Amino acid sequence: MHTLQLRRPLRPDIVGAPQPACHAPLNIIDISFQEEGEHTRAASAMLALWQIKRLDMYIADHMALRIRTLDLAAALNLSVSHFSRIFKQTIGMSPRNYVLAKRVAAASRTMLQSGLHLTEIAYMHGFCDQSHFNRAFHAANGLSPQEWRKLNKQPVSKECAAVLARMMGR
Predict the structure, then answer these.
(1) Model confidence over 69-92: pLDDT tens digits?
(2) Which among 9, 64, 118, 167 has the fewest CB atoms less than 10 Å away?
């Protein structure tokens, strides 16, 4: 609790009476409540775990489509400005960069699990073309998608290759 030294007001009902020379301290309780309220508001301005999971599901379900910040905010019934502020405070990056990182990660998994051409993978994960995919992937991983795929691709057994080929309709 904070204490401020304030001068007591003059009493108008005692005219001409001598006023005390000392100043008594007054406790200012509002200041401590205000400070606690600011900390409480800052802590509550975070996304809950269930909200982050809902966003991740929304992104996964709409991976091939355009995902705007407006869409993510609507998924949580929040205004765009409030959502953007608490998203960055919670996650540490903008919603746009988060969606881009999720797309690159999903594309990476697809590159390892399939023999699809990089253009197909780019379209499947919401990139407008392979060039956009290459730039985003290189920025995230430091390698082009093709170089990364060669370094990380595990040899596939003949049985697994046959199953993948049937799944892809080849």
Answers:
(1) 999 999 999 999 999 999 999 999
(2) 9
Residue 35 domain-assigned? no
- The pTM of the full predicted model, rounded to 2 decimals, is 0.65
CA distances from 93 to 44, 46, 89, 130, 141 (A): 18, 13, 8, 24, 17
Tell me: do 163 and 145 sit in the same domain. yes
96: Cβ contacts below 8 Å, ≥ 6 apart: 69
Question: Would you state the torsion angle of the CA atoms of residues 161, 166, 169, 170, taken in this order, to the nearest 10 degrees?
Answer: 50
**At 83, which helix (H) or strand (E)?**
helix 80-91
Neighbours of 7 (CB within 10 A): 10
List, for residues 48-61, the tens digit of each pLDDT value: 999 999 999 999 99
Q: What is the DSSP letter of 125?
A: T
